[in-house]
Amino acid sequence: MVLNFYELFAQYEKLGTKEERINFLRQNASQALRKILYLTYNPEMKFFTNKFPPNYRPDVQSPPGLSVSNLYMEIRKLEMFLESYKLAVAKKEQLLTHLLETLEAKEANFVLGILQKNLKVAHLSRSIVREAFPDLLPEPGIKG
């Protein structure tokens, strides 16, 4: 069974040592997880917004794990919401609203954490990510 990212990071928060956290990230290193960490902790990745779109309505009817989509399926779409992506802001808002409404509410909140560049996961930091995946993020002060 594949865990949603908020479930995965709930397990991460329970770990006691830095080494356990680094090993946990490495053991769960999917392409999607690496993309989330890259978008969140790379300072060059700037999103066009850090708020829910005004028309967003959370999915409160779907039971956990049974929403229309999940972040594993939608992860590659997140790059459309970068400032550098050539698309009108109104279109980005429309696409973001649609994406968020296909996810269960907890996953949509997790996406908001990516957009805000703060996943709100205890003990997760840029330095931990760099130790777990040395090739993932540019070194501080170096353009990647």
Topology, element by element:
Layout: H1 5-13, H2 18-27, H3 31-41, H4 71-74, H5 89-102, H6 105-115, H7 126-132
Helix pairs in contact: 2-7
Textual characterization of the structure:
The chain has helices spanning 5-13, 18-27, 31-41, 71-74, 89-102, 105-115, 126-132. Helix content is 46%, strand content 0%. α2 packs across α7. The chain has one domain. It contains seven helices and no strands. With 144 residues, it is mainly α.
Counting DSSP H or I runs of 4 or more residues, the number of helices is 7
Mean pLDDT: 93
Count of domains:
1
Low-confidence stretches: none
Helical percentage: 40-55%
Strands, total number: 0
Strand content: under 5%
- The geometry reads as globular
**What is the H/E string?**
HHHHHHH
Major sheet attributes: none
From the alpha carbons, calculate the radius of gyration and give it in angstroms.
Answer: 15 Å
Roughly how many Å apart are the termini? 35 Å
Structural class assignment: mainly alpha
Entry summary:
By secondary structure, this protein is mainly α.
Question: What key attributes describe this structure?
Answer:
single chain; 144 residues; mainly alpha; 7 helices; 46% helix
